[in-house]
# Entry
Amino acid sequence: MGLFCLAMSVKKKQIITQVDSFTNKPFAGNPSGVCILDKAADEVWMKNVAKEMNLSETAFLYPEKDGYNLRWFTPTIEVDLCGHATLASVHVLWEEGHLESSAEARFYTRSGLLTACKNSDWIEMNFPATPILPINDYKELVEAMSVKPIFAGKGKVSYLIEVGTVDEVRAVRPNFSKLAELKIRSVMVTAKGDDGKYDFVSRYFAPGVGILEDPVTGAAHCALGPYWMGRLNRKEFLAYQASARGGEVRVRVENDRVFLGGQAITVMRCELTI
# Structure
């Protein structure tokens, strides 16, 4: 009887970390996966991992130039900009010692160079501003959202609807079948804060990218910040996204940039076996 030996190559373990962003407590804010790679990965593999994680976004990054190449995937598509997964990526880089917490994090992305730095217990990210332009024909949109708008507009990819009260924001129940018929990618609903703590409140629905409601959306505040700057004649805000999980976002508008501040906490780490 012959004796056979199977030689197996030893591969480095690939770790993926799940982080809750825009919160300082677990099981709140917006969860995302963070996968730090040695080099660029196969796009199909990244899409499959994001689908397996089934979070609103999973971030994949690897060293490039003086920073990191960063890409974000929902369970269905790659997106051009994601705030909470960028925040999570910075948090993991610092927490795991890939980058000193005193150092600026630099990311090369489909939305250009994004940077982040530590600000006390918060992380502040430098993102591009997204202007919102008013639209006139929004009857079908507001019917699908079941809201009474004060204003309706559209940015690069998302619609924005302002309503009269925070209670109206909390009460929104979109007709997702209707939104699908209208081929609407995403909608923000927002109102001026009414409790003396938050300057504005919002919710974000993105059925067009496979996310019925995103818990806390950094990229949405790239539009909400400039919008509320025009409405409130201010440049700095403390905002709250009123999803079931909820989360706080500090917003500061400077010319064509929006600085987004948030906190993050690691919830779990796992080893990918494939």
The longest strand covers residues 264-272. The chain has a mean pLDDT of 95.
